Amino acid sequence: MSRASRRTNSPYSDRAMFARFWRDYLRPHTRMVVLAAILMTIEGSTLGALSYMLKPVFDLVFVAGREDAIVWVGLGIMGLFVLRAVTGVAQKVIMTRVAILTSTKMQDDLLGHVLTLDNAFFQKMPPGTMISRVISDAEQTQGLWQALILGAGRDVISLVSLFVVALLIDPVWTLVAMVGTPLLILPNILLQRYLRRKSARLRDITADRTTRLDEVFHGITPVKLNALEAYQTRRFTKLTGDFVRAQVKTAAGAATLPGLIDIAVGLGFFCVLVYGGQDIIDGEKTVGDFMSFFSAMTLAFQPLRRLGSLAGTWQRAAASLERVFQLFDTTPTVEAPGATAKRPDLPDTTIRLHDVALSYGDTDVLRGAAFTAEDGSTTALVGPSGAGKSTVFNVLTRLAEPQSGQVTIGGMDIREMEVGGLRSMISVVTQDAILFDETIRENILLGRTDVSDEALQAALDAAFVTDFLETLPQGLDTPAGPRGSALSGGQRQRVVIARALLRDTPILLLDEATSALDTVVEKKVQKAIHSLSQGRTVLVIAHRLSTITAADRIVVMDAGRVVETGTHDDLLAEAGLYARLHSLQVERK
Ligand code: ADP
After folding, report:
1. Among 3.90.550.10, 1.20.1560.10, 3.40.50.2000, 3.90.1720.10, what is the CATH number of 14-328?
2. Which positions fall inside the ABC transmembrane type-1 domain (predicted)?
3. Is there an atom of ligand 1 within 6 Å of 123 CB?
4. pLDDT at site 516
5. Burial 285-301 (b: 16+ CB within 10 A, else e)
6. Phi, psi angles (nearest 5°) of residue 567
7. Which residue owns the Cα nearest ligand 1 atom 27?
8. pLDDT tens digits for 498-520?
């Protein structure tokens, strides 16, 4: 996404965002917040009680000399301190808990939602950006809760009471004290906008930095092989400069908001002194009036400053909330797989493509591809690189949506099937078999608990996983490493084949490895694939002559079209593209 489009005006108003944040994340914790507010009131009122307790200390103990009062007055004061400590700790724990619960719930919800989005979305959004959205944007909203609800509540109540005191002493003085306020409205609005912009920019850079790191660590091998260590570090450092600037600007903006209040209060003090001072000199007011008015103003100072910085807290959180809600409102174009992935009831699993056309932007990838892969037989997809073979797999699994044409399985349009149901009929075994950073067992079972030990063992045997398990320190419980990096290519493939055997799906999509494995391993992988293919409808992107000739039918693709179909002998006799590809391959041998 370009920076310009990221900066476009938010579709959400502040009020709508807060209402939504309240509804989805804060409201479930209302009881806890009320409790925290009560604790906070108790904690706050102990200050008043303590000062009140000074009266008996002086009057009863010191002045009246009543020895019996020493103990109970002393105990009373100690009790107040204990009460203050207990309520303070409890309130802090409750608030932290609620803050963490809301932000982690937002993170869980975000991941849950983002995973339902389709592939097109992930091609535009780099993983680093997504990680940054899910982790840091959600965390930005943590402070909001505390600051906004309790801070505002407490400070507003203090301010109102102080305002009443000030009005009672002298309404005119009160007005005079507030003379600076209107002057600050415009700068405040401008400053808030500035802060929102800078916070949004900061979120962008944070995402860019995560993306950079993600790319570097995922590409650690090419980075090392091409001696890119210094280059990559420089690229990151450049972002660091931007990051520091954005951080400092955001902090400066946030600090200036309460700074504006300082100026307003200073102006108020000055005006009251000049105007009120005259009243006292003229004998219209007592010094006591003036002192209590001044102390009300002084007491109002802290809550006012806190309320001033609240605007900053909101602006920073709002910049993140905007992104989070935008993500929540991005909906998948392909419906998300339901929890109950119901396999459709089909007479057979013959796959048919009718005039399928698909393009990415201006690039036509499939241009009316059409072929049939018969139920229970093996169909080989052959063709030059870039012909669209992998795209056919993506269309079949609905990772990509064609612009026109139709794909049917067993006569039913795949768009009429539940996506989860469709995918539950298909196993995909590709050459870049990706494993998760879990044990081999977990990689094969993928969360299934209904697999018996015998069935697991049978799959391990048939996929020749058993062969290399013995050489691993913890056998089946050996971790596969990040993206399966602790296993060799041949081992990874066999793990994926074992996984597919257990899934036992009627359809198998197979992308044959182009990189040669050593002959012994190759034989084993071949045998494993052979046992996996039995009795299934198999579509294989084939590179090896042996696989191609063994297929029941060959579909030759070129530039997004099917140009020839038939058996090996038919196609050789046609003397077309297949014959040319074949002779190239024979020459290479
Ligand atoms: P094959 O498997 O036959 O080598 P593919 O199906 O992988 O071919 O790709 C066909 C064409 O589609 C290629 O030219 C590739 O660059 C293009 N392509 C594939 N995926 C995308 C994508 N997500 N965005 C843009 N172009 C793509």
Report:
1. 1.20.1560.10
2. 34-316
3. yes
4. 57
5. beeebbeebbebbeebb
6. -85, 170
7. 360
8. 998 888 899 999 988 766 566 77
